[in-house]
Automatic annotation (TrEMBL):
Name of the protein this chain belongs to: Globin
Organism: Metabacillus rhizosphaerae
Lineage: superkingdom: Bacteria
Cofactor(s) required for function per UniProt: heme
Keyword tags: Heme, Iron, Metal-binding, Transport
Keyword Iron: yes
Annotated SUPFAM superfamilies: Globin-like
Protein family: Belongs to the truncated hemoglobin family. Group II subfamily.
Keyword Metal-binding: yes
PROSITE patterns per record: GLOBIN_FAM_2
C-alpha cells in the first residue's frame, strides 16, 4: 500500500545477483568481452551502486563517483547498435537466471533498453 521504490521491490540481494549473473555473461560474449576489463569485480561493484540509485534507492553511485554522466563515461568504447543489443540480451538471460519476473522485470528491462539505446555512439559499419 505504501509507495515502495522499484529498488525496494526488487531488493538488494536480487539486484546484486542480477549484476553478478549479467557480468558472467558479458565476460563470455564475443562482442562485449573485448571492450571490458578482464576482472569485472570493480565494474560489477559500480553497476550495483548505479542500479541502486537508478531504481530509486540511495544515491550511492553519485556519492562515490559523482554524477553518472553515463553517455560520456561510455564514449571511450565503440558502442554499436549490435553491441547495445548484446548487452540487453545478456541482461535478459541474467533476469531469467535470477528469476526476476513479471512487471518488475518488464519495467526494468524497458528502462535499460532505453538507456542502452542512448549509449550507442558508433554506427554499425564503423567497426
Ligand atoms: C561501464 C560497456 C550499457 C552502466 C562500462 C564499461 C564498458 C561498458 C566497456 C567500462 C567497464 C570498466 O572499465 O569498468 C557498455 C556497453 C553497453 C553499456 C557495450 C551497451 C549499450 C550500459 C547501460 C548502463 C550501463 C544500459 C546502465 C543502465 C554502466 C556503469 C558503468 C559502466 C554504471 C561504470 C561507470 C564507471 O566507471 O563509474 N560500460 N555499457 N552501461 N556501464 Fe556500461
Amino acid at each position: 500500500e505504501q509507495n515502495i521504490t522499484p529498488y525496494e521491490a526488487i531488493g538488494e540481494e536480487t539486484l546484486s545477483h542480477l549484476v553478478d549473473s549479467f557480468y558472467g555473461k558479458v565476460q563470455k560474449h564475443p562482442l562485449l568481452s573485448p571492450i571490458f576489463p578482464d576482472d569485472l569485480t570493480e565494474t560489477a561493484r559500480k553497476q550495483k551502486q548505479f542500479l541502486t540509485q537508478y531504481l530509486g534507492g540511495p544515491q550511492i553511485y553519485t556519492e562515490e563517483h559523482g554524477h553518472p554522466m553515463l553517455r560520456a563515461r561510455h564514449l571511450p568504447f565503440e558502442i554499436t547498435p549490435t553491441r547495445a543489443n548484446a548487452w540487453i540480451s545478456c541482461m535478459k538471460e541474467a533476469m531469467k537466471e535470477v528469476e526476476l519476473e513479471g512487471e518488475l522485470r518488464d519495467f526494468l528491462l524497458h528502462r535499460l533498453q532505453l538507456t542502452a539505446h542512448h549509449m550507442v555512439n558508433t554506427a554499425e559499419n564503423a567497426e
